[in-house]
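Check my protein:
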Amino acid sequence: MDYTFYQQYWWFIVSLLGAILVALLFVQGGQTLLYSIGKNELERTMIINTLGRKWEFTFTTLVTFGGALFASFPLFYSTSFGGAYWLWMLILFCFILQAVSYEFRTKSRNILGQRTYEIFLMINGFGGTFLLGVAVATFFTGGNFIVNKSNLTNPLMPVISTWTNPLHGLEALLNIQNLLLGVCLLFLSRTLALLYFIRTINQEKIIQRSRKQLLYNTLIFLVFFLLFAGITLFGKGYAVQPVSLEIYIEQSKYFDNLLKMPIVLLLLLTGVILLLYSIIRTLTKDSYLKGFWIAGIGTVATVLCLLLLIGWNNTACYPSTTDLQSSLTIGNSSSSLFTLRVMTVVSLLIPFVLWYIFKAWKAVSNKPIDAKEMQEKGHQY
């Protein structure tokens, strides 16, 4: 197991965390549906409480994803999060609004009122999900930065990567490919949320509205997903020459990656099929309530493959649009061999962590939410 193995292993771990995070964004998607699915205060309370039982999983996974990226690929982390900081700060602000809202929405004597916190939840749902999609898309489209590792010896300015655009990440909103993934992620999260409502809320009207909304949101998601996938797979990509490590532009690079990695291609097709199957089965069979789990697995598989395409097979995982040779790869942005080895040993505990998450998830979802539970006194979000 050489240095390259550990770099590829940790790109897989980071990609898996990112994929799980995308699947858990159903919480944000559900918040955007608060008023279109919930038509009165009781129904909105049911929706918020079924989402409230899971919002911490999403938040924790986001932090874990960032932590794993920082530990395994510190230059990647510092360049993106430190350079495009306005974009990431907006995302962080949206998630802070979510945490505050679930904590204080039903607290007595809160001066803002329940409706204000519900609006905060919708801001997090729309803004946080869309902006996160835009930020992830820059891993394909690139950022405005220059890398100069010799700066480490400069005592006055020991900064390796420098952002060259004063917008510091906001310029990503001017790229159509980034916007496509942002909208795609938003409607994917709404689609997963509707499947989750059908699974976890025992209220016929909410289930009926969710089934009706499921078709519209799925169609919008598919249109934007196909547009993004088409532009990405068959557009320009950023390849790395294995020997000289020179970065160069290659047409259809990501599609070529799929062909050269058949296991990734097979997993991608399986993920898409699972996602579509769960949606179609839910739409065509009223008694089918388990679509959320199959769709979640399909989402994780699909997103995992997309992220692997930008790290494996001699590909630049964070291209520089300012200086092509400053582009980052898993080879030039990773931690030391010693660090990756130690982290790999620690990663053997991951199955136990997943088991704990499963038990915790099951404990807070032992039965569907109904109107009677919401009308009884007890903890409510």
User: Anything to note?
Assistant: The chain has 16 helices and four strands.
